[in-house]
Write a structure and sequence with these properties.
single chain, about 280 residues, alpha/beta, Rossmann fold, 16 strands, about 20% strand
Amino acid sequence: MSQKLKYISRIKDEFDTVICGVNGVIMRGSQIDAAALGALIKMYQSGKRVMLSSNLSLRVGELFGLLKSAGVPMNIFCAMITAGEIAHFYLQNASSLGRCYYNMTSLPSKMMFGLNYQETRLLDKAHFVLAETVAEGINVEAQMPVLEQALRRGLPLVCVGNNTSVVSDNGQICAGAGALAEQYALLGGKVLSFGKPDVRIAAYLTENIADFQRSRCLVIGDGMATDMRLGYNFKAQTLLLTSGVHQFSADLGTQINELQANYGLHVDYYAETLQW
């Protein structure tokens, strides 16, 4: 049975390593959650290894700069990875996708900077379609004609960040790139996805820890399909934050049980927010 927590300090002796999400955990849109940041600082001060894993399309350097400029003491993190960094590395070495892409978001892709690819606004010129999880979210319905046209042309969809939902800058829940990828897969399209819950992310973050034990690793996040699936598949402990994308109501226990049944996985702990 999942255990409800108010303060993570109550279980601090149960873990040595923390893999923490970013959006919906320490950030609410573009705002830093002071209590969550304080909890991570306390973990670091208690000798815990704290790591970040984000499904945003930012590269690691961008995420580092964003958090640092918001006043986050970056020395508390021993490692971090983003979906954008993983996708950038893959595309740097990919040879079969072609070199022209159609960007489904409104802004130029910073993740593609430095790569030998060309953006086109014409689908009939594109070799693949790019969908990135961005903080402001994506209008899936408006993009359905694009997906249908891409399917007719047999274009693969590169999904950077598997989140079907994200917490936007104004605190609203909106669609992420994973929602586009989900619809494209349902239409019969080919999808290449990067980000959580790929278990290799957790393996990458922890591979240089000599005394690492998965049973003493805690994965913290607000998404069942991404964060909790990652922790479950990695055989780590899991903490689901209920103030994020799932929009819980008062009866948390019942909803946690329903989510576990729907997703076919177990959550060890749940809390409304991350507090020490």
